Amino acid sequence: MNEYRKMLTSCARLIACIVVFISVTCSAQYQWDPALTTGKLDNGLQYVIYNSDKKTDPFNIRLIVNAGSVDEKQRAGVAHMLEHMVFHKTQNHPEGIHNYLEKLGWKTGLQVNAMTRQTETQYMIRTRPNDALDMQGSLALMSQLAGYATLDAADWQRERGVIVEEWRQGNGLADEVNQLKKAVVRNNSRYVDRPTIGTYESIKQADISELRDFYNTFYVASNMKLIISGYLDVAKTEHAIQHSFGLLPSKPQPKRDYVALPLSPKLYIDKVQHPKGSTSMVVYGLRMPMPDRTTEQGQYTYLQNYFLRKMMRNQIRRNKSLVDSDDIESLSLTVKEPTNNRLIVAIASRTHNHELGLKVVATELARLYRDGLDKQEFIQIRDKAKEINSRNIKAAKHRDFAAWEDKITEAFVQGSLLESPVARSERTHQWLNKMTFEELNARMREILDTEDNFLYFQAGGDQQITLPTTAEVRQLQADIQANINTLEKSVLLADVKPKAAQAINTASVSEVTTPNLPKVTSKPGSWSPLESEQWQYQQQTLTLRKYQLSNGDQLLWLNKPTSDNKLYIKALTQVGFQNNAIPAWLAQTSIQLWQQSGLAQWSETEWQQWQVDNPHWQWEFKANELDLAAVIAPDQLATLMQLYHLRMSTGIDKGAWESVKNDVVEQANRIQPKSQFVNQQRFGESTFDDINQVDVDALNQAKIEEQAKTILSQPATFYIIGELSQTDLEQQMSHSLANISRKASLDNNSSMQLPANRVEYIQSHDQQKAEISQYGYLPMQWTPENAFLVSTLTPIAKKMLKKKLRQELGGIYSIKFEMRLDPQQNRVETEVHYTCAPERADELLTATNEVLNNLSSAIAEQDLQRIVEDIYFAEKSRNNNANTWLRRLILSDKRYKNASYIKRSGQLHEQVTLEGLEVLAKQIFPLPHRLTFIDMPGGKKL
Known about the structure:
The chain is of the alpha+beta class. The chain has 32 helices and 25 strands. Strands 12, 13, 14, 15, 16, 17, 18 and 19 form an eight-stranded mixed sheet that branches. A six-stranded mixed sheet has the order 1-2-6-3-5-4, sandwiched between helices. It has a six-stranded mixed sheet with strand order 22-23-21-24-20-25, sandwiched between helices. Helix 12 packs antiparallel against helix 14, helix 20 runs parallel beside helix 25 and helix 26 packs across helix 27. The longest helix has 25 residues.
């Protein structure tokens, strides 16, 4: 270390000592927020309770077991395997927790869920108002998972297959590359060779005795934390905790001194290279300790990290302009906390020239050390931090019971506690006022001086790389340090502002004066009122007014108050990109370019600023319709409708087509052969257009605009929910809507699945797995009511499939099942997707079809009251949602041309009966048309 760096280091350590003294003496010891009730049972279990005091709130329970993959002795994945197994038999539930939940009408993944992480495993219960279990029953269930699982060997043999299938789903390139990176970043730790889900071999070889040993060691009360939040009686809740968890035996908390990332004063060098990888970069990192979060010193240091994370990152980005080589694609810096009490700072250079990349990252770290941070940026971030800090108190007041649960969980996982927002804000305010630029620079240099370093070269699968030795890296750093004064000075924030301003016409978006909208010059159109409807809803009189516009458009306005006093608006053109005249790719491209072009009279910056400051339309181009949507204040209606009129005739920016036309062909070429084959078999022809460069080159911007104008000229229907002046609305219909030129010239031309009932065996991958996809359909008349009943039957079918394929057969981890009544095709359409072992594909497909074919007989076993209550509970929430009313208004108009469906929608739960669902299931299944694809080794190669 040269004399200059020694001097800076000495100053840094002195300032750091002063900071520690200030922080430790700044305020009182931390305490939990007084809104929370905390306690600890005699057996060591800790709990925190939050009472929302809102009768409409249910309650949530979360159990944190301080045991994860890092605690596994040798076999990777044991913690995760155990998380699965506790849902089988327990002392009080020999029938199995899954069966118990089914009787309750609960679903795993919804009311009950769990997740395993590296350092802990969490179990969650999410109740609904007046649910099947009260607080005492819910805590009893959680305690069964925590301490009374029997861990039966036969159950393990079945569950093993489920976990293997979960492993298959996550076995992708990104996961594998991340594991390689982790091996370097967390070298010399138990995090390296213990992937949370395990490996194929570890799952296959694990014995039930290993799971029992892990359960007995780590699932002890002293190693658990319980969080309960929602509407509850605190005293009764504490009694229920004692009754359920107090009986767990008292055992010492297991020693876990390996959880914090072990540090070592050396440079670790390795490579990250995957056979299928393509990324190439150099990464140099520094690992260091952090003080305990529960101390003043710890909290102050984490506040410093907030600044350093932003300022170091931004400085490195700015300094990229000093790198004189096109071989360096990008330069970045990250600051992360891989475990509690540890910090990692890493600088990365994207490049295929690893030798150059190493020199660049070493140079930029040396430059950062020499020049320090940017004082102007420090002042800006500090001022912003003060604003955020002052808002945090107000934000905390709006925290609901679920957010309280999340905050408490975060504190527990971080080894901290959740303070009162007022106390925390006051202390942070003091610290922000005392924090200096000099101490941040000192802290940064202390970080850069840390001696636990790592270096990795990441390369594509076929790239040859040679790793440097530690001596070579240290010599490079010494050479750079010896010539440190020859390096250019760091680029400051003030240096880049003029360039940024020039890039957007010498003004940032926020500095642009928003122009006024051009006036609509078309002669006003006319309209005529159609029959209106009026009815009572919750002591309100609702009125639906309908208008016919002279250009062929229609407008429906439901005069109903919304919770935020805003207007919810849709403009729907009943023609999409699958139509009878324009190829889908051309329709999508033309509308996308039109949408992105804004207004012809404005610059791009002016259009961007308009969208920030004013109401505008959100565009979504679908297969069967063009959907424009907006949410505005009533006094913005004139502006929004004026904008709609202008947007229908604005055109496409000059040169827009030339800038994207090459991408059109490139994107078409990315379509996978499997997708092409599946669509060919389903529809008789591929739904993906055959795009070639010759056809694309033959098009010009005028032709593209012509296609967009054709689509935009199709008649539209406007739907509005909210309170506004009838006079204002009718005036806007004349001035901005009825005078838009319309011409009905297109029809939708949606692809329809062909009649078929067969299985296709294909192979599009080389992994040892089978991907099963089944598509079926049945003709059925669409009505909103029928669609609702089909949607009610869907979760029942999915539950029965999951029960058979996962819980009974142990053949899958998850399943995607969809069933909908299509309004355009008047068909019930179904899709089933899952992954399994290749050797079990036919067995599980047979079971899938049996479950669906016999679905009507399973209906009788369902808890109708729970189904109806769930629907009623969901409907109460939806009926307060303006978007729900808007959607149902559209459905009612499409089917009945009046408000009959929206009038009845509040009683949808009354339509559900077991007999009705049985009849519906018999009507749909077995499907007469069913096409199945099994993608696995041995199939027809694509």
